[in-house]
Amino acid sequence: MPHRLGILLSGRGSNFLAIADAIATGKLANAEIAVVLSNLANAPGLAAARERGLPAVAIEAAGRKRAEHDAEIVAALCQYGVDLVCLAGYMRLLSPGFVQAFPQRILNIHPSLLPAFPGLHAQQQAFDYGVTVAGCTVHFVDEQLDHGAIILQRAVTVAKDDTAETLAARILVEEHQAYPEAIERVLSDKYRLYGRRYLSK
Length: 201
Ligand code: GRF
Fold this sequence. Notes:
Blueprint: E1 3-9, H1 14-24, E2 31-38, H2 44-51, E3 56-58, H3 66-79, E4 84-87, H4 96-101, E5 106-110, H5 122-129, E6 133-140, E7 150-157, H6 164-188, E8 191-194, E9 197-200
Parallel strand pairs: 1-2, 1-4, 2-3, 4-5
Antiparallel strand pairs: 5-6, 6-7, 8-9
């Protein structure tokens, strides 16, 4: 039985599409997308999911308590039989109840080499800081922002003529490689955590 992924997104969904493509081409085996969920009904990523014939559900957060909204998301994930949750541009912090419902089963992608530059506009932060190497990180989600154990990272060299935008575009290319590879690693059962280090068994 393939593992069932639940994708959470708030925006354009290019990482979701990279995961879907990796599944479709067989690069990411033994997985299927069970549902795409969003806190925003007009997220372009939801429309993209519908175009691909995938279940796409909006659970609006506006005006609701975080724990209550998250409980509804968790219920939907369970209803669709999800066993791995992938945050892909999901612009909300998860409540402790959500994190505890899927122990070591929630992943996130962040466009910096964590722990540098957590939070919003990470690529701009890195560019403004003057780093010469930037990149992206796929990590487990815990209750702190962009903080859980790292699954894998990919680096990007900053060029002399880069702008924050051109750098972000090159990081995004790496994100699209990194996320399916990280999912494969987690599903393979060949890796485990040694403290915060995620290494082959
Ligand atoms: C990506 O840069 C990802 O690293 C960050 O949010 C952005 C989402 O982009 N968490 P997309 O919606 O997957 O295109």
